[in-house]
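FIELD: query
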Amino acid sequence: MEFLIASAIGVMTAAGIYLVLRLRTFPVILGISLLTYAVNVFLFASGRVVIGAPPVLRDDVTFYTDPLPQALVLTAIVISFGMTAVVVMIGLGAFLGSNDDHVDDQPGADDDSKEGAA
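FIELD: result
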């Protein structure tokens, strides 16, 4: 089970980094979202992967799940939603202002590659 979770975290992180390094706004936003999902799964898995255990220690329970990672993940979800909304608005404003969605702010960067191919 731990190998599956570690592999999922690795795949989401690799895909997120790949998308963040793209030159368009939309893939960068998707990459940031994937990175936040990977961090959320990592935080959740750091509290031991336990199925069916209560999150709070009571008198009759000897085995429980750590509630701190669950609280951290809930906080991270809210923060990542707000951050994604801000980044989408910044990207939309940049696109409407310049009719271009390049991240590196070099207008006509695709035009150079077309001339070299011809």
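FIELD: remark
Helices lie at 2-20, 25-45, 67-98, 109-117.
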